[in-house]
């Protein structure tokens, strides 16, 4: 039984050796893989696109010794703010509450024996209500801020601008980057006395720098100018071409 196993094993080793030798011989006899010369370049593309959307987060912050009184006053001010925003033609579906909070801020500078009528420590209630407004027309951003301020808003947490369909811009940037890569490869190949063949390997890296404006607290004053600017979209592609 053992002898038979060893014989079979020797036959398998011999067959594998024969196959490897045959493959090596075939490559040596003219079946060798031809080495192809290549050139690798990096192409870059960049586009500045004007935003067609805007987002504003605005609201009211108030202080009062009574949480109930503060809440009532806050509701009245926010109803006025939201009403002013709606008056610009902005539908309710584009106005969303993002924060409603009531917080008691204790007065740590008051004497320890200082108490309110119900025995609570001295302090004041801070109430806040914020809404996020989505705009299909970024040119309405300044008017929206001004209308909110005039209606009683005193908090603004950023104005953001964006593009509704960035995929279209990405496609344009890729096209520019690929054209740049081909131009670079062609120039280098010509300097070397060669010509560029087909692309055999491609990789990319996309990026963007969105336009963004921010203002923390307005304190009830004017909003000032709001400029949408433009969003920079960029792409880098690494392409390997065959050389002919």
Key terms:
244 residues, alpha+beta, Translation Initiation Factor IF3, Alpha-Beta Plaits, 3 domains, five-stranded antiparallel sheet, three-stranded antiparallel sheet, elongated
Describe the structure.
This protein has four helices and eight strands, in the order H-E-E-H-E-E-H-E-H-E-E-E. The chain is of the alpha+beta class. It has three domains: 1-34; 38-49 and 166-213 and 227-243, Protein of unknown function (DUF541), domain 1 (Translation Initiation Factor IF3, 2-Layer Sandwich); 54-156, Protein of unknown function (DUF541), domain 2 (Alpha-Beta Plaits, 2-Layer Sandwich), CATH 3.30.70.2970. The strands form two sheets. Strands 3-4-2-5-7 form a five-stranded antiparallel β-sheet. A three-stranded antiparallel β-sheet has the order 1-8-6. The longest helix is centred in the first third of the chain and has 30 residues, at 2-31. The chain is elongated.
């Amino acid at each position: 039984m053992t002898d038979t196993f060893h014989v079979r094993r020797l036959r398998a080793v011999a067959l594998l050796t024969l196959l490897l030798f045959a493959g090596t011989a075939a490559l040596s006899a003219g079946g060798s893989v031809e080495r192809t010369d290549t050139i690798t370049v990096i192409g870059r593309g960049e586009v500045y696109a004007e935003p067609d959307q805007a987002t504003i987060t605005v609201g009211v912050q108030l202080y009062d010794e009574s949480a109930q009184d503060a809440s009532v006053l806050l509701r009245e001010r926010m109803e006025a703010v939201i009403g002013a925003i709606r008056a610009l033609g902005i539908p309710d579906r584009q106005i969303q509450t993002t924060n409603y909070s009531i917080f008691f801020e204790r007065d740590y500078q008051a004497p320890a024996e200082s108490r309110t009528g119900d025995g609570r420590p001295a302090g004041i209630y801070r109430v806040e209500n914020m809404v996020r407004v989505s705009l299909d027309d970024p040119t309405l951003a300044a008017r929206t801020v001004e209308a909110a301020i005039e209606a009683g808003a005193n908090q603004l947490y950023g104005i953001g601008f964006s593009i509704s369909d960035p995929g279209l811009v990405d496609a344009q940037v890729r096209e520019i980057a690929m054209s740049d890569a081909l131009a670079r490869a062609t120039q280098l190949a010509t300097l070397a006395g060669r010509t560029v063949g087909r692309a055999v390997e491609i990789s990319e890296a996309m990026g963007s720098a969105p336009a963004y404006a921010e203002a923390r607290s307005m304190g009830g004053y004017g909003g000032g100018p709001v400029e949408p600017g433009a969003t920079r979209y960029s792409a880098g592609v690494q392409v390997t071409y065959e050389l002919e």
